[in-house]
Design goal:
The protein is an alpha+beta fold. 16% of the residues lie in helices and 35% in strands. A hairpin with a 5-residue loop joins strand 1 and strand 2. It is globular. The termini are far apart.
Length: 172
């Protein structure tokens, strides 16, 4: 979920299916320039990215169905709550358990791609999704995964291997 303020301080949130962490402190969002949220980011130079979970699937889906360009009260219709980030000029949606607070780093605009790149300056997580070392536990997060082939939402909670370890034997 990408959230930003418009020029009047109104919260806008969109569900974006395509994005990724692209460096230790960078995130790339592959979204169109004409989205209301994109236009807000260009104006405020900040945004937040929250991971939606199974418990909030209906509102998350609504944020993808409705457009802020045609529905100015889109956020208010959900009854959700937002607070202003203390580090960037963007809203944090209270209902989502994990958020990355980002400053606009650059826009990539080529013939084949439009991307908003943000510098992650802070993260916040609810205690309920943290382990005993204050690290996010995927099994507790229940983050939604979008399946573009069948247009479904899934939750991935089974750990099947350890990154940078599962392929170690092939290094020999």
């Amino acid at each position: 979920m990408i959230a930003a303020y418009d020029e009047n301080g109104t919260v806008n949130v969109m569900n974006a299916a395509w994005g990724m962490i692209c460096a230790e402190d960078k995130i790339a969002l592959f979204i169109d320039e004409d989205h209301k949220t994109t236009q807000n980011i260009l104006k405020t130079k900040a945004f937040t990215v929250s991971l939606a979970d199974k418990a909030h699937m209906d509102a998350a889906d609504f944020f993808g169905i409705a457009t802020g360009n045609k529905m100015p009260d889109k956020f208010e219709r959900t009854g959700y709550h937002a607070v202003k980030s203390d580090v960037v000029n963007a809203p944090i949606i209270d209902e989502f358990p994990y958020v990355m607070e980002c400053e606009l780093a650059e826009i990539i605009d080529t013939e084949n791609m439009y991307a908003v790149v943000g510098k992650i300056v802070d993260t916040k997580a609810e205690e309920t999704i943290l382990d005993d070392k204050n690290k996010v536990e995927a099994e507790k997060l229940n983050a939604l995964i979008f399946d573009q082939f069948k247009h479904g939402y899934y939750v991935g909670t089974e750990k099947v291997g350890k990154a940078w370890n599962a392929g170690k034997e092939l290094m020999k």
